[in-house]
């Protein structure tokens, strides 16, 4: 593989689910908190349910009709893939819903716009790549993956937020509680 911009973008896009999970775990490790473990627990539940759901015949036949390319068979279990549903999409959708739930709870839309745009781009490019390579069809595989990951992400994050403990990322800072720099001074506002 040549080292050019297209290949670097392709490599980043394909590794983005692993990079995002690694980011959450490393941030949690550096902060000496358990937030990353709770994020990972929800992601693990999502991936296990996605793998189990992929065993239904509708998804197996969908994948067998398209005869999965070698690009789609990253991890195999016996003669077939671990999941007939795209785990990269499950990871990205779960993470997006996890973040959206927290952003909605604390109303931090404007300071997280970049994050939301980045996730939109990653999900769209991963979806296009999976469809182009024949790893999945939008219906029923893509829709089923989005529903599973979205529902589990929403309920898991709502559960974490309702525990009363500080176990989610990006909490408690609203758009009104930000600091801005004027010349050489910081000015902070706290609204109650």
Keywords:
192 residues, mainly alpha, two-stranded antiparallel sheet, two-stranded antiparallel ribbon, 6 helices, 4 strands, 62% helix, 6% strand, globular
How would you describe the overall organization of this protein?
The model has no long low-confidence stretch (mean pLDDT about 85). The chain is mainly alpha-helical and about 190 residues long. Strands 1-2 form a two-stranded antiparallel ribbon. The protein has helices at about 5-30, 35-55, 55-65, 85-105, 115-130, 140-160; strands at about 75, 80, 180, 185-190. The chain is built from six helices and four strands; from the N terminus they run αααββαααββ. β1 (about 75) and β2 (about 80) form a beta hairpin.
Give the helices and strands, then pairings:
Layout: H1 5-30, H2 35-53, H3 57-65, E1 76-77, E2 80-81, H4 87-106, H5 113-132, H6 138-162, E3 179-182, E4 185-188
Antiparallel strand pairs: 1-2, 3-4
Strand content: 5-15%
Helix proportion range: 55-70%
Query: What is the terminal separation in angstroms?
Result: 55 Å
Number of helices: 6
Strand order within the widest beta sheet: 1-2
Query: What is the general shape?
Result: globular
> Mean pLDDT, as a whole number?
84
Reported for the largest beta sheet, the result is: 2 strands, antiparallel
Order of helices and strands: HHHEEHHHEE
Could you tell me the number of beta strands?
4
Please state the structural category: mainly alpha
In the predicted model, the low-confidence regions spanning at least 5 consecutive residues are none
Radius of gyration: 19 Å
């Amino acid at each position: 593989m040549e080292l050019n911009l297209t290949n670097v973008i392709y490599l980043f896009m394909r590794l983005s689910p692993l990079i995002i999970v690694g980011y959450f775990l490393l941030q949690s490790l550096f902060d000496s908190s358990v937030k990353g473990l709770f994020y990972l627990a929800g992601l693990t539940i999502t991936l296990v349910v996605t793998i189990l759901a992929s065993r239904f015949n509708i998804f197996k036949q969908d994948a067998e009709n398209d005869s999965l390319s070698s690009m789609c068979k990253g991890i195999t279990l016996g003669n077939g893939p671990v999941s007939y549903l795209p785990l990269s999409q499950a990871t990205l959708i779960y993470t997006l819903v996890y973040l959206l739930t927290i952003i909605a709870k604390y109303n931090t839309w404007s300071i997280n716009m970049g994050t939301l745009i980045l996730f939109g781009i990653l999900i769209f490019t991963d979806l296009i790549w999976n469809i182009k390579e024949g790893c999945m069809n939008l219906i029923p595989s893509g829709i089923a993956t989005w529903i599973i990951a979205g529902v589990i992400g929403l309920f898991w994050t709502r559960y974490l937020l309702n525990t009363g403990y500080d176990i989610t990322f990006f909490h408690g800072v609203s758009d009104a509680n930000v600091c801005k720099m004027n010349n050489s001074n910081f000015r902070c506002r706290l609204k109650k």
